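Q: Structure for this?
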Amino acid sequence: MKIVMIHGQNHKGSTYKIGRMIANKISREDDIVEFFLPRDLNHFCLGCYACMEDVTKCPFYEEKNKIMTAVESADLLIFTTPTYCLRASAPMKSFIDLTFNYWMIHRPRKCMFSKRAIVVSTAAGIGTKSAIKDITTTLLYWGVPSVITYGISVQAMNWAGVADKKKEKIEKDTTRIANKVLKRNRVKAGLKTKALFMMMRMMQKKDWGSGEAEKMHWDKNGWLGTERPWK
Ligand SMILES: Cc1cc2nc3c(=O)[nH]c(=O)nc-3n(C[C@H](O)[C@H](O)[C@H](O)COP(=O)(O)O)c2cc1C
Protein backbone atom coordinates (compact mmCIF):
# COMPACT_ATOMS: atom_id res chain seq x y z
CA MET A 1 0.00 0.00 0.00
CA LYS A 2 1.46 3.33 -1.06
CA ILE A 3 1.53 5.77 1.85
CA VAL A 4 2.17 9.50 1.74
CA MET A 5 2.86 11.16 5.08
CA ILE A 6 2.44 14.89 5.59
CA HIS A 7 4.07 16.02 8.80
CA GLY A 8 3.05 19.41 10.19
CA GLN A 9 6.48 19.75 11.75
CA ASN A 10 10.10 19.36 10.71
CA HIS A 11 11.21 17.55 13.85
CA LYS A 12 10.80 13.91 14.79
CA GLY A 13 9.02 14.04 18.13
CA SER A 14 6.14 12.01 19.62
CA THR A 15 3.72 12.87 16.82
CA TYR A 16 6.13 11.85 14.07
CA LYS A 17 7.06 8.70 15.98
CA ILE A 18 3.41 7.61 16.35
CA GLY A 19 2.64 8.36 12.69
CA ARG A 20 5.66 6.29 11.63
CA MET A 21 4.68 3.42 13.94
CA ILE A 22 1.34 3.20 12.12
CA ALA A 23 2.92 3.52 8.65
CA ASN A 24 5.58 0.89 9.42
CA LYS A 25 2.88 -1.56 10.52
CA ILE A 26 1.03 -1.12 7.22
CA SER A 27 3.68 -0.84 4.49
CA ARG A 28 7.31 -1.41 3.57
CA GLU A 29 9.78 1.46 3.71
CA ASP A 30 9.89 1.67 -0.11
CA ASP A 31 6.17 2.42 -0.18
CA ILE A 32 6.31 5.30 2.29
CA VAL A 33 6.95 8.86 1.10
CA GLU A 34 7.26 11.67 3.62
CA PHE A 35 6.89 15.43 3.43
CA PHE A 36 7.81 17.75 6.26
CA LEU A 37 6.27 21.17 6.79
CA PRO A 38 7.56 23.80 6.56
CA ARG A 39 10.71 22.14 5.10
CA ASP A 40 8.97 21.06 1.89
CA LEU A 41 6.52 23.97 1.50
CA ASN A 42 7.77 27.00 3.34
CA HIS A 43 5.12 29.50 2.27
CA PHE A 44 1.83 31.07 3.24
CA CYS A 45 -1.07 31.59 0.84
CA LEU A 46 -0.87 35.18 -0.48
CA GLY A 47 -4.58 35.37 -1.26
CA CYS A 48 -3.80 36.30 -4.89
CA TYR A 49 -6.41 33.87 -6.29
CA ALA A 50 -4.14 33.14 -9.28
CA CYS A 51 -4.88 29.43 -8.75
CA MET A 52 -8.59 30.04 -9.37
CA GLU A 53 -7.90 30.80 -13.02
CA ASP A 54 -4.99 28.38 -13.50
CA VAL A 55 -3.60 26.14 -10.74
CA THR A 56 -0.09 26.35 -12.22
CA LYS A 57 -0.09 30.11 -11.63
CA CYS A 58 0.18 29.73 -7.85
CA PRO A 59 3.53 31.36 -6.94
CA PHE A 60 4.38 28.18 -5.02
CA TYR A 61 3.03 25.73 -7.58
CA GLU A 62 6.29 23.79 -8.10
CA GLU A 63 6.74 22.83 -4.43
CA LYS A 64 3.03 22.33 -3.90
CA ASN A 65 2.70 20.16 -6.98
CA LYS A 66 5.49 17.83 -5.82
CA ILE A 67 3.50 17.11 -2.67
CA MET A 68 0.08 16.95 -4.32
CA THR A 69 1.24 14.65 -7.13
CA ALA A 70 2.39 12.21 -4.44
CA VAL A 71 -0.85 12.72 -2.51
CA GLU A 72 -2.92 11.96 -5.60
CA SER A 73 -1.07 8.71 -6.28
CA ALA A 74 -1.22 7.45 -2.67
CA ASP A 75 -3.57 4.76 -1.35
CA LEU A 76 -3.31 6.05 2.19
CA LEU A 77 -2.52 9.52 3.52
CA ILE A 78 -1.14 9.95 7.03
CA PHE A 79 -1.18 13.45 8.50
CA THR A 80 0.67 14.18 11.71
CA THR A 81 0.63 17.39 13.71
CA PRO A 82 1.56 18.29 17.25
CA THR A 83 -1.23 20.20 18.99
CA TYR A 84 -0.19 23.83 19.15
CA CYS A 85 -2.48 26.18 21.08
CA LEU A 86 -5.37 23.72 20.72
CA ARG A 87 -5.08 23.56 16.93
CA ALA A 88 -3.00 22.00 14.16
CA SER A 89 0.49 23.48 13.75
CA ALA A 90 0.85 26.69 11.73
CA PRO A 91 2.81 24.93 8.91
CA MET A 92 -0.04 22.39 8.63
CA LYS A 93 -2.61 25.19 8.47
CA SER A 94 -0.53 26.90 5.81
CA PHE A 95 -0.51 23.66 3.78
CA ILE A 96 -4.31 23.50 4.11
CA ASP A 97 -4.63 27.08 2.85
CA LEU A 98 -2.25 26.49 -0.05
CA THR A 99 -4.26 23.50 -1.23
CA PHE A 100 -7.68 25.12 -0.96
CA ASN A 101 -8.23 24.78 -4.69
CA TYR A 102 -8.59 21.00 -4.08
CA TRP A 103 -11.69 21.64 -1.98
CA MET A 104 -14.96 20.35 -3.40
CA ILE A 105 -16.29 23.86 -3.81
CA HIS A 106 -13.48 24.52 -6.31
CA ARG A 107 -11.67 21.73 -8.22
CA PRO A 108 -12.11 18.38 -6.51
CA ARG A 109 -10.01 15.45 -7.79
CA LYS A 110 -11.67 12.16 -8.63
CA CYS A 111 -8.88 10.11 -7.01
CA MET A 112 -9.70 11.58 -3.57
CA PHE A 113 -13.09 9.89 -3.45
CA SER A 114 -11.56 6.43 -3.01
CA LYS A 115 -8.71 7.34 -0.64
CA ARG A 116 -8.14 6.61 2.99
CA ALA A 117 -6.46 8.81 5.56
CA ILE A 118 -5.23 8.70 9.13
CA VAL A 119 -4.77 11.86 11.20
CA VAL A 120 -2.51 11.78 14.26
CA SER A 121 -1.99 14.48 16.86
CA THR A 122 -0.34 14.52 20.26
CA ALA A 123 -0.69 17.12 23.00
CA ALA A 124 0.90 17.47 26.41
CA GLY A 125 -2.59 17.74 27.88
CA ILE A 126 -5.62 18.84 25.87
CA GLY A 127 -6.49 19.95 22.35
CA THR A 128 -5.86 16.99 20.02
CA LYS A 129 -9.56 16.89 19.09
CA SER A 130 -9.61 20.42 17.68
CA ALA A 131 -6.14 20.03 16.13
CA ILE A 132 -7.31 16.89 14.31
CA LYS A 133 -10.53 18.59 13.22
CA ASP A 134 -8.55 21.19 11.23
CA ILE A 135 -7.30 18.32 9.07
CA THR A 136 -10.41 16.12 8.96
CA THR A 137 -12.45 19.11 7.75
CA THR A 138 -10.02 19.51 4.87
CA LEU A 139 -10.18 15.80 4.05
CA LEU A 140 -13.97 15.92 4.01
CA TYR A 141 -13.86 18.80 1.53
CA TRP A 142 -11.18 17.04 -0.56
CA GLY A 143 -13.68 14.17 -0.86
CA VAL A 144 -11.68 11.57 1.13
CA PRO A 145 -14.36 9.20 2.44
CA SER A 146 -12.51 7.17 5.08
CA VAL A 147 -10.59 8.87 7.88
CA ILE A 148 -9.25 7.33 11.09
CA THR A 149 -8.15 9.73 13.82
CA TYR A 150 -5.76 9.20 16.70
CA GLY A 151 -5.23 11.87 19.31
CA ILE A 152 -3.34 11.25 22.53
CA SER A 153 -2.20 13.28 25.47
CA VAL A 154 1.41 12.21 26.00
CA GLN A 155 2.13 14.47 28.99
CA ALA A 156 5.54 15.22 27.57
CA MET A 157 7.46 17.68 25.42
CA ASN A 158 9.10 14.96 23.34
CA TRP A 159 9.19 11.17 22.83
CA ALA A 160 11.98 10.63 25.37
CA GLY A 161 9.73 12.14 28.03
CA VAL A 162 6.77 9.84 27.36
CA ALA A 163 6.20 7.31 30.17
CA ASP A 164 6.79 3.61 29.37
CA LYS A 165 3.21 2.73 30.24
CA LYS A 166 1.97 5.32 27.75
CA LYS A 167 4.35 3.97 25.11
CA GLU A 168 2.91 0.47 25.64
CA LYS A 169 -0.58 1.85 25.09
CA ILE A 170 0.55 3.65 21.94
CA GLU A 171 2.16 0.44 20.66
CA LYS A 172 -1.17 -1.40 21.06
CA ASP A 173 -3.27 1.45 19.65
CA THR A 174 -1.10 1.81 16.55
CA THR A 175 -1.31 -1.95 15.90
CA ARG A 176 -5.11 -1.77 16.17
CA ILE A 177 -5.25 1.15 13.71
CA ALA A 178 -2.90 -0.57 11.26
CA ASN A 179 -4.94 -3.78 11.38
CA LYS A 180 -8.12 -1.83 10.76
CA VAL A 181 -6.60 -0.34 7.62
CA LEU A 182 -5.16 -3.66 6.43
CA LYS A 183 -8.48 -5.48 6.90
CA ARG A 184 -10.45 -3.19 4.61
CA ASN A 185 -9.21 -2.92 1.03
CA ARG A 186 -11.99 -0.83 -0.53
CA VAL A 187 -13.58 2.34 0.62
CA LYS A 188 -16.66 4.01 -0.75
CA ALA A 189 -17.92 7.56 -0.61
CA GLY A 190 -20.62 7.86 2.06
CA LEU A 191 -23.79 9.91 2.18
CA LYS A 192 -22.12 12.98 3.70
CA THR A 193 -19.46 13.15 0.95
CA LYS A 194 -22.02 12.57 -1.78
CA ALA A 195 -24.42 15.18 -0.39
CA LEU A 196 -21.62 17.77 -0.17
CA PHE A 197 -20.55 17.01 -3.72
CA MET A 198 -24.10 17.37 -5.04
CA MET A 199 -24.46 20.69 -3.25
CA MET A 200 -21.23 21.98 -4.84
CA ARG A 201 -22.38 20.64 -8.21
CA MET A 202 -25.60 22.59 -7.91
CA MET A 203 -23.59 25.73 -7.14
CA GLN A 204 -21.38 25.20 -10.20
CA LYS A 205 -24.45 24.66 -12.36
CA LYS A 206 -25.93 27.93 -11.13
CA ASP A 207 -22.62 29.75 -11.76
CA TRP A 208 -22.11 30.36 -8.06
CA GLY A 209 -18.55 29.02 -8.22
CA SER A 210 -15.45 31.15 -8.59
CA GLY A 211 -15.57 31.44 -12.39
CA GLU A 212 -15.56 29.93 -15.84
CA ALA A 213 -12.19 28.11 -15.53
CA GLU A 214 -13.41 26.31 -12.43
CA LYS A 215 -16.72 25.41 -14.04
CA MET A 216 -14.79 23.95 -16.99
CA HIS A 217 -12.99 21.60 -14.58
CA TRP A 218 -16.40 20.27 -13.50
CA ASP A 219 -17.63 20.08 -17.05
CA LYS A 220 -14.51 18.29 -18.35
CA ASN A 221 -14.96 15.63 -15.67
CA GLY A 222 -18.57 15.15 -16.73
CA TRP A 223 -19.82 16.05 -13.24
CA LEU A 224 -22.29 18.65 -14.49
CA GLY A 225 -23.83 15.74 -16.39
CA THR A 226 -24.28 12.20 -15.09
CA GLU A 227 -20.64 11.32 -14.18
CA ARG A 228 -19.68 11.15 -10.50
CA PRO A 229 -16.21 10.92 -8.90
CA TRP A 230 -17.16 7.77 -6.99
CA LYS A 231 -17.94 4.28 -8.33
C1 LIG B 1 3.79 26.23 20.50
C2 LIG B 1 3.28 25.09 21.32
C3 LIG B 1 1.93 25.05 21.65
C4 LIG B 1 1.43 23.98 22.39
N1 LIG B 1 0.08 23.94 22.66
C5 LIG B 1 -0.41 22.92 23.37
C6 LIG B 1 -1.81 22.85 23.66
O1 LIG B 1 -2.61 23.66 23.24
N2 LIG B 1 -2.26 21.82 24.41
C7 LIG B 1 -1.39 20.87 24.94
O2 LIG B 1 -1.85 20.00 25.63
N3 LIG B 1 -0.08 20.88 24.62
C8 LIG B 1 0.44 21.87 23.85
N4 LIG B 1 1.77 21.88 23.53
C9 LIG B 1 2.59 20.70 23.85
C10 LIG B 1 2.70 19.73 22.65
O3 LIG B 1 1.46 19.60 21.98
C11 LIG B 1 3.11 18.32 23.07
O4 LIG B 1 4.28 18.36 23.82
C12 LIG B 1 3.25 17.40 21.86
O5 LIG B 1 3.26 16.07 22.30
C13 LIG B 1 4.54 17.70 21.11
O6 LIG B 1 4.64 16.82 20.01
P1 LIG B 1 6.04 16.51 19.31
O7 LIG B 1 6.85 15.68 20.28
O8 LIG B 1 5.68 15.76 18.09
O9 LIG B 1 6.67 17.81 19.03
C14 LIG B 1 2.30 22.93 22.80
C15 LIG B 1 3.66 23.00 22.49
C16 LIG B 1 4.15 24.06 21.75
C17 LIG B 1 5.61 24.09 21.39
